[in-house]
Amino acid sequence: MTQDGRVVRGDQTRQRILDRAMAIASQDGLEGLSIGRLATDLGVSKSGLFSHFGSKEELQVAVVRAAEEVFTHEVVKPALRTTPGLPRLVELCRGWLDYSERRVFPGGCFFYAAGAEFDARPGRIRDLLARARRDWLRLYEQTVRDAQQLGQLDTDVEPAQLAFELDALATAANSAALLLDDALAYQRSRAGIRTRLRALATRPEEVP
Amino acid sequence: MTQDGRVVRGDQTRQRILDRAMAIASQDGLEGLSIGRLATDLGVSKSGLFSHFGSKEELQVAVVRAAEEVFTHEVVKPALRTTPGLPRLVELCRGWLDYSERRVFPGGCFFYAAGAEFDARPGRIRDLLARARRDWLRLYEQTVRDAQQLGQLDTDVEPAQLAFELDALATAANSAALLLDDALAYQRSRAGIRTRLRALATRPEEVP
DNA sequence: AAACTTTAAGCACGAACGTTCTGTTAAATC
DNA sequence: GATTTAACAGAACGTTCGTGCTTAAAGTTT
């Protein structure tokens, strides 16, 4: 869009580029994403595509931002529409696993792939991905805190600790499903999460 | 080594190449590992280096195999020297976290990085990495089974399920430490593992 | 010391990379 | 309807990629 909010032709092309770029990057990485290959895939010229972003790094930044929007739309927003506290915590886990299993991105969770790729490469991309992950963990954390204040969860456990554990179990499913073709991975993850939450819930029978 | 077991000059060069290649690959990925860059780093010619492996994929295969040897030496063997059952299970977790935290590879766990890179790219490398991960999970699994047969762990939990959970908690520490510079990540992981094992141990006070 | 094998360098290749510059076409504005 | 502007295409740049082919040096064996 332009500054005054108009939608122009270039925006559609740009979104088409980013959609394809996210798919490629989730499979082959943000570095493996090459401008020439992307242009060929979309049937446009390399220079025309390039001029939308100005540099490869700007393209990568745009792809990460676009992936954040997808993730927010697919996981965060649905969870925020549910009841705060324990139900929302359950929905965060469920929604994330579902997002990974449904292959919203063909290479599994975009941020798992990109995070592992850039976790040892200082720069803008790493900073962006780190911020995104921190935001996600903070959302877990705040939801745990809410559940504790509502008397639904044991207050002995640190919110950040439980956030870490839930994210760990979910992420591992993504990894095992992709690398090992392990069909049971998501079930294992759900089982692990259920066990942990029931151990901490004041009314365990209400954890689905 | 040659077929008859002699150690020749080329082997030292080859090992020097692989050592540097593992370090690079753990940070920049097996694809980001380029022959030209590797040769420049080591002060040798590109063609000389290349002739040791014959192709890039063969180099990548050799790097993965070399990393397996390092991992076996650093984590698996020490654990196999401890008492079978629960003590060994604890040592597998401790040893892995220590291996990640000590930065045996500068980019953290080699197999975490490479696994995430190739989990959506069919081919030899993916197959190799998948086999390595399966072996690792099976070692966890067998150790859990031993502990159960020795009456140290609750027999209600499936060995593969617990293996999945322990690996998940450990891997998440590697990820958080690298991407988020989270100094607490390893402690969180250890705490999570301890909690889970104590919940399943017949004598919880013996879980360190 | 000579013959032979192993090891590595030198050089060049075609392809793909990110990037820049110059046109051309289509839309928006006047 | 003329003019300006945004959206692309085409061709080429220099660089780096993986990969061969040829040749020199080093080590081993006779």
Question: Would you kindly provide a written description of the structure presented here, covering whatever features stand out?
Answer:
Two copies of one chain form a homodimer. Chain A has 208 residues and is mainly α. Chain A has a single domain, classed as Tetracycline Repressor, domain 2 (Orthogonal Bundle), CATH 1.10.357. In chain A, 72% of the residues lie in helices and 0% in strands. Chain A has helices at 9-32, 35-42, 46-50, 56-80, 86-101, 110-118, 124-149, 159-179, 185-200. In chain A, α5 packs antiparallel against α9. Chain A is elongated. The relative contact order of chain A is 0.10. Chains A and B meet through α1, α6, α7, α8 and α9 of A and α1, α6, α7, α8 and α9 of B. The structure holds a DNA duplex (30 and 30 nucleotides).
Tag the structure with descriptive keywords:
homodimer, 208 residues, mainly alpha, Tetracycline Repressor, domain 2, disordered N terminus, DNA-binding
Structure summary:
2 copies of one chain form a homodimer. Chain A is an all-alpha fold and 208 residues long. Chain A has 9 helices and no strands.
Write the layout of secondary structure elements.
The structure is a homodimer of 208-residue chains.
Chain A: H1 9-32, H2 35-42, H3 46-50, H4 56-80, H5 86-101, H6 110-118, H7 124-149, H8 159-179, H9 185-200
Helix pairs in contact in A: 1-2, 1-4, 1-6, 4-5, 4-7, 5-7, 5-8, 5-9, 6-7, 7-8, 8-9
Chain B binds a DNA duplex (30 and 30 nucleotides) through residues 8-10, 13, 34-37, 44-52, 54-56.
